[in-house]
Design a protein that fits this description.
By secondary structure, the chain is mainly alpha-helical. The chain has 2 domains: 63 residues; 60 residues. The chain has 4 helices and no strands. Helix 1 packs antiparallel against helix 2 and helix 3 packs antiparallel against helix 4. The radius of gyration is 16 Å and the shape is globular. It binds protoporphyrin IX containing FE (HEM). The site of protoporphyrin IX containing FE has 23 residues, from helix 1, helix 2, helix 3 and helix 4.
């Protein structure tokens, strides 16, 4: 398999896993099981997101796609930063439920936009 296909499979697989692990942690809190913070669920998402980003950088190296040249990719990176911040707030046990729900919705909308941009690669700007 080519480097491109390996990176692409890794990127897409870890992209799905990031959303699943985010949703699982939200749901655990929602059903009153915050103890996931003392399980491997505390670090597995970070390991997955590191792989996701490493594969993203690999794809930028082996494909003609370039951030700040192709608008959809630049927009993806900006949305990624928003997704990370909103995700951190959504999982902060010390915040009010209302603030956490708002942050969770914002995170999910942004990650949905990332998937949309990745799949359609629109010419922006
Ligand atoms: C949460 C973050 C991210 C998610 C969920 C995500 C998701 C995806 C998905 C699903 C695809 C495949 C689209 C297709 O089938 O054609 C893709 C492609 C791609 N992603 Fe990401 N991505 C993320 C972050 C990034 C970042 C930060 C970069 C760059 C620094 C990046 C670079 C790329 C590139 C270059 C491709 C195109 C590969 C190709 O089709 O040849 N991604 N992304």
């Amino acid at each position: 398999m080519s480097a491109y296909l390996i990176l692409k499979h890794l990127h897409v697989t870890t992209a799905f896993i990031t959303v699943i692990l985010f949703a699982v942690r939200l749901l655990m809190d929602l059903v009153g099981r915050p103890g996931w913070r003392e399980t491997p669920l505390r670090w597995i998402p970070h390991a997955n997101d590191t792989l996701l980003l490493a594969a993203a950088i690999g794809l930028v190296v082996v494909t003609p796609w370039m951030p700040f040249v192709h608008g959809w990719l630049t927009a993806k990176i900006i949305l990624l930063i928003g997704y990370i911040f909103a995700g951190v707030f959504a999982l902060k046990a010390t915040l009010s439920a209302r603030a956490r729900v708002a942050a969770a919705i914002l995170a999910l909308v942004q990650v949905a936009a990332i998937f949309h941009l990745a799949l359609t690669k629109p010419v922006l700007g």
